Structure formats: C-alpha cells, structure tokens
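Support reply, case 0932

Customer input (verbatim):
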Amino acid sequence: MTSLRKGTLRIEGAADPVSGVLPILSGVRPTTGDGVGADDEMRRNLAYGRPHSLVPYTRQWGYDRERAERELPTVVLENDLLTATFLPGYGGRLWSLVHRPSGRELLHRNPILQPANLALRDAWIAGGVEWNLGTTGHWPLTCEPLHAVRVTAADGTPVLRMFEFERLRRLIVRIDAWLPAGSPVLYVHVSLHNPSDQVTPVYWWSNIAVPESAGVRVLSPADRAFHFDYVSDLRHVDFPGTDGADRSYPARAVRAADYFLDLPEGARRWIAALDEAGSGLVQTSTGGLRGRKLFCWGSTAGGRHWQEWLSGPGSPYLEIQAGLARTQLEHLPMPGGATWSWTEAYGRLDVEPAAVHGSWREACEATAEALDRLVPPERLDEALGEAAAFGPHEEWLAEGSGWGGLEGYAGFPPPGPAQAPWQELLSTGRLPVCDPPAPPITGRRWREALEKSADDWHAYYHLGLMRLADGEDDAARAACELSAGARRTPWALRVLAFLAASPEEAADLMLEAHRLRPDLRELAVETLDALLVSGRCEAALALIEALPYRGHGRIRLAEARAAHAIGDDDRLRRLLAEGVQVDDVREGEVSLDRLWLAVHPGEPVPARYDFRMSDAGSST
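Our regenerated output:
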C-alpha cells in the first residue's frame, strides 16, 4: 500500500528568512566558454540566457544563527520500501528518503535548519533534494512555499503535486512525486511550461545532497568532465583520474570543486553515490535530463567550515546533481508555448563492493547493471506516460504565492494582498501609489500597461524596474529620473545609483536614499558598500556611528573594511578580537580572511573567519 499524508518536522532551526523590499538589480554574469574544450553547442548555451537583472525578486535575508526547536509542515509519501518527506514551504524540497527495510537515510538529512547566503536571493539551506529552475545558482523559490495538492494516478496511487509560477523566467513548474506499491524507487515527474509566445532561456538542476565519508564513491557513465575549482577557469579533463588523483572519491578532494560529467550520447542518464559496502543512493532519469554533476566542499579549513556552517559539526555531505544542460553555466532556448518534461527516479542501490571500488570501467558497468535490475529504462518511459494521465486536484496540502492566479493561469488559487495593486492596474488601467512600493513584477503586458499610464513616482519607478529587467538601462534611468523628479524616494534613487556613471555619483545617490529611510538596514548596508567602493571611508565610519543597529554583522564588516582602508588597523584588530560574525557571508566571499591576514600576516586564519573554498594559502 502507498500513503500520502501531512506531517510535521521537528528540527533545531533558525528563524525563516524574510523578503526585503529592495529588488535585486544585478543579474548573472555571462560565460564565453573560450578554451574549455566546449563544442559549438555548449559555447552557444554558455553565451545565452543570463538575466540582466533578478527583478522581480527581492533579497531574502534577516536570518541569524540563533536556533531553537521548530516545527515545519511536511508532506509524506510512503510505501513498504521507502518513506519520502517533502518540505513544501522550502521550495518543495525532498528533505528525506528512508529505505524502510534497513532504516537507512539515503539523503543528507540535515540535523539543523540554518539559512546561509548561497542562493540567488541570498537565503539557502543544505540537505535533501533541491529543485532549481531559472538561472545559474540556487533558484529564487528555494526558501519560498510551493502550492501542493493531492492527485491520483490511473491505478489509484496517490500523487503529491507541487507547482508554482516562477517569475524570473515566467514559467510554470510542476513537480509530481509518487511511490507505487512495492516500488523500490521514488518517481518524480517534472514539467516546465512556457505560457508566453516568446522564446525563454531555461535552466534546471536537481541538486541531491548525500552523506560524505571516506569510502563514498560517485559513479556515472563518463570518462571526461568539465571541471571548475573556484580558482581556475572551467576546463575539460579526464575523469575520474584528474591531476594524478581519483576524483570519484569526494572525501579525498582538497579544494571545493564542480565536475560536470560529460556523459556520451546514447548512454543511460544516471549518477550514484555508493559507500564502502557498495550501497547508497542512485538517481536516474529519462533522456531529457542530460547533465550530471559532482560537487564537493574539499578538505581545507574553509571547506570544513562551510560544512559546519550549513549542517553543524560531524555532518559532512556532497552533492550529486542532474540537469537539462551539460553544465550549470548554460541555458537552453525554450520556444513559446512549449512544455518540457522528464521523469526521475531515486532509490537505494546495492552493488558488489569489490566492483564499486575496482577500476572505473568495472565500477560503472557493475553499477549500470544493478540499476537496470532496480529500475529498467523502459519503466522510466512508462512512468513518463503515466504522469500525463494523473487526475485533477483533489485536496490542497499547502499554498504558495498568488502570482500565478494574478496571471490567470488554470489551477492556481486567486491572487492575494501582495498582488492587489497589480489587480487594480488590470481593472482600472492605473497602478495605485504604494509606499513602500508594490512588490515588483515583470512581463510584457504589465510593461505595456505602465508605458501607457505611468504619470506618478510609483508607476515610473516600476516602469524603470521593468525596463531594467529587459536590459534597457538608458530607458530604465529615464523612467527613474521621472520618478525622482515627481518625488524623491529611496527606491528610485537606488536604481539611479545602480545605473550611475561613476562610483562617486552612486555613493551620493545612495547617501540621499539612506537619509530618506535610515531605519532600513538593507539600504544602509548597500549605502556603506557604495561609500567604500568610492573610497569615502571616513564618511562610511561617520554613517556607522549614527546607526542604531551597528552591531549587525554586515555593519561591523563595513566598519572593519573602512578602518583598514584609512590605516586604523588598531580598530580593525579590536573588531576582529571582539568578533565579526557575518550571518549572511556569501559563498566564495573572502573579506573576513583577507582582513585577518592584513593585520596578522603569516598567522593561521581562525576557523570562524575562514570561508575560503580553495587552498588555505590562497583566496578565491
């Protein structure tokens, strides 16, 4: 028998991140792919599709590292072999997959819930299987709720359906998960639909965290990989033998690294992480999910610190991943009106240990044979067809946002308070004035409506954001100048600072914006960054002295940077000795270790300041 039920996860966790009011104006940098061994198709995909801006999304932050027992709603699928637990409130993440006969957890089930700054919008949590749609990076909805409903398969099997409207790419994503009676694998069917008539860049990766130990070997049918180590450029290398080491054992890696496995055409799509006994998790899919990847944190002090920062002590993990393209630096063009879908399977795989830890070819062949016995490829094709016949929504299990309802898409609940200003634009032809501004939105019909009707600071501001998202910087500047001319607000001034011709002009505009809203901490942090970039460190220190929240980690970091820049290293030493804890330190950020080494040359960097993802002797 198979069951689907609501449940509760009790976990030691920090408070949920909060969404700010400042849209993310910057985008994602393009990659050329020159010299990486890429073919013409990959070069096109590397150069294509990076968003000019992350509007309409705002930053998710405000979390700290104070944890207490929390209760999170879950949805659980279970048959006699597997128990799968999902977190609809965290992007629909598959949090746990337990093999019931052995009691073994197949995923990295994080013992804590600790947001950290690794996602496109900042907040991200480690563990389980994360679904990623949008652009290079952890997706905008990773810490947002998805809609979740119960549907039923033709044979009566209950199905968990999670879905949402992803607003950066304006795509509808649907994730169906089910466990047929007696099935040794969890099936996950993903459907992406482009409701517009325009070609849209698409990116998808299923990121699977599994426990790391010395005996875990990652296997996939590839003997070449595209390698990125956070220090050098992407390069095409032999796999697993790279630079004289066997990279299929992640615990042996020194540096954090990505290996995008170059699976040959026609090969079955799978990746597995098997331990010293030849047992572990396998993921496989129909052919639409082409890419596979291995990620490891490495064994440097910084890599170990990141693991503890995300999962607490004694809980190391690695990631095996599956994506639409061969690397996470690529986007694929999706035609208007198109729907892309595939089916994935997750389960426990057992292979003879001597084969798993023998030669690469022997290990891959033995794993592939065991996988064929566990779930033959034709069974995945059958599951892909079964998903098309799933029934209608029967019971609401969790609710996401109202943005799909605002767009009028079938199956979505009606819009809520966040969408009310935009509903008024639809019904009256005018966007009401809101301060703080209405949540941002993008899309052709919304822009066309504002192009016709904008005549106040609020409408001009949103028109500027829409033009910025469309890559029209000059037009965005013009709209925000009209907004600032109608009324000086921090919102339009911030966009004008982002588009300013010089760091000095940007700093002046950010200072004015801060004076209008000195209570807004995220604006103060950006203002300090602008002052430091322009070299106005004394002004930054003066601003900090007046802040009531100067103890915040980002503010203390700005104080430390400014003190060092003006030569006040005694102040920097004092700050470091007291402690500068930046709860939202960014993946790859090296500000803390550089400040330490600036005033303690030749001394080891304390673990609390070491987030370097390369060798201890260099910074990324």
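We compared this against your earlier run and they match. Two observations from our side: The first helix runs from residue 40 to 47. The radius of gyration is 25 Å. Please reopen the case if you see a mismatch on your end.
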